[in-house]
Design brief:
By secondary structure, this protein is α/β, with parallel strands linked by helices. It has 12 helices and 19 strands. Strands 3, 4, 5, 10, 11, 18 and 19 form a 7-stranded mixed β-sheet that branches. A 6-stranded parallel β-sheet has the order 14-13-12-15-16-17. Strands 1-2 form a two-stranded antiparallel ribbon. Helix 4 (162-172) crosses helix 5 and helix 4 (162-172) packs across helix 10 (299-312). The structure holds NADP nicotinamide-adenine-dinucleotide phosphate and zinc ion.
């Protein structure tokens, strides 16, 4: 299938227009005409080769919202014209223990296949949402409640990665009434984590390196804010958190965060800096602390998260941008100069 989008041709090349072929749709596939795509920091890590597992040319983008323009003969959930959303993965085995528990992202038989920068079991490459269309198996396409008004659709796009990546661990570790929860890094993931933890009824404290974000954090639902560069600010909360979700994209001090956990507390990483992070074992022994990680979430939970957001009026805080400014947007994300997620308008890609 002919497609058009923006691709990086190498890890040092800027994103530029690219015509390419996608796989043809089969009986279980949905073809989505893409309206909006969020810019995740993972797009930047991968397009710049920071994780060292990059396939070029690369069309990034895994926060995708659009409309169904064609369906395969076996598709049940969608009809042409429906709204649809695609997130971070587009294939898994669907029969291993983890897939059967609706945890496709942890597929133990060949693994989950990413929406872009990956290879399907058929040997074909995947290309993401910085494009006019995408072909995805129905199982990996989500419905969007009509409770999301049209005007809210661009801001719903980041839910497909930043949303589920923070919703899933907050649910898994029981963020809710009576729990003290920390969110580290007020970026794309962090600001949605803050909204979720607040909506779930936890006492939420935002950790930030940016003094300029303190007021915003409070408006977004933080009961308190820790400026991580200020030792006094950290000292006040030492040993008091049940759960901390670390959404930081760059290397940072893990021991300082572990020290904030109370007995049996957990620090969960969702941020993926390009270099290993060091941990002092004594930081874990004290208070019998746990260090954990979490990857996006399963398809059932992603749908649950989207429906929760529609019911509770939760979307991302976004800045709309266009493809001619996508490279500038990348620079601004790396500098932390966006409140709090860029979303690309894909309509221009269809008018080529
Ligand atoms: P982002 O919008 O750039 O936000 C990252 C935030 O981290 C920044 O806003 C900043 O917050 C903080 N930060 C940046 N540099 C820092 C430093 N040197 N020290 C301490 N804090 C720093 O990125 P994002 O899109 O939210 O993604 C965050 C990370 O999650 C990325 O590494 C991404 O690849 C990863 N990710 C993981 C998954 C998963 O499944 N686990 C899914 C999606 C993304 P403050 O200004 O508040 O300090
Ligand atoms: Zn992402």
């Amino acid at each position: 299938m002919k497609s058009f989008g923006y691709a990086a041709q190498s890890k040092s090349a800027p994103l530029a227009p690219w015509h390419f072929d996608r796989r043809d749709p089969g009986p279980t596939d949905v073809v989505v005409s893409i309206d909006f795509c969020g810019i995740c920091h993972s797009d930047i890590h991968q397009a710049r080769g920071e994780w060292g597992r990059d396939l070029f040319p690369m069309v990034p983008g895994h926060e995708i919202i659009g409309r169904v323009i064609a369906i395969g003969s076996d598709v049940k959930k969608f009809k042409v014209g429906d709204r649809a959303a695609v997130g971070v993965i587009v294939e898994s085995c669907l029969h291993c223990d983890n897939c059967r528990k609706d945890l496709e992202v942890y597929c133990s038989d060949g693994g989950a296949v990413d929406t872009y920068n990956a290879t399907l079991r058929s040997g074909e490459r995947t290309y993401g949402g910085y494009a006019d269309t995408i072909v995805t198996p129905e199982h990996f396409v989500h419905t969007l409640s009509p409770k999301f008004k049209d005007a809210a659709l661009p801001a719903a796009a980041p839910l497909l990665c930043a949303g589920i990546t923070t919703y899933s661990p907050l649910r898994h570790w029981g963020a809710g009434p009576g729990k003290k929860v920390g969110i580290v890094g007020l970026g794309g993931l962090g600001h949605l984590a803050l909204k979720f933890a607040h909506a779930f009824g936890a006492h939420v404290v935002q950790f930030t390196t940016s003094a300029s974000k303190i007021d915003d954090a409070k408006k977004l639902g933080a009961d308190d804010v820790i400026l991580t560069k200020d030792p006094e600010s950290l000292k006040k909360h030492t040993g008091s958190f049940d759960f901390i979700l670390d959404c930081v994209s760059a290397p940072h001090d893990m021991d300082a965060l572990l020290g904030q956990l109370k007995l049996d507390g957990t620090l969960c990483l969702v941020g993926l800096p390009e270099v290993p992070l060091s941990v002092q074992p004594f930081s874990l022994l004290a208070n019998r602390r746990s260090l954990a990680g979490s990857a996006i979430g399963g398809m059932k939970e992603t749908q649950e998260m989207l429906d929760f957001c529609a019911d509770h009026n939760i979307v991302a805080d976004i800045e709309m941008t266009t493809y001619d400014k996508v490279n500038e947007a990348y620079e601004r994300v790396v500098k932390g100069d966006v409140k709090y997620r860029f979303v690309l308008d894909n309509s221009a890609l269809r008018q080529r």
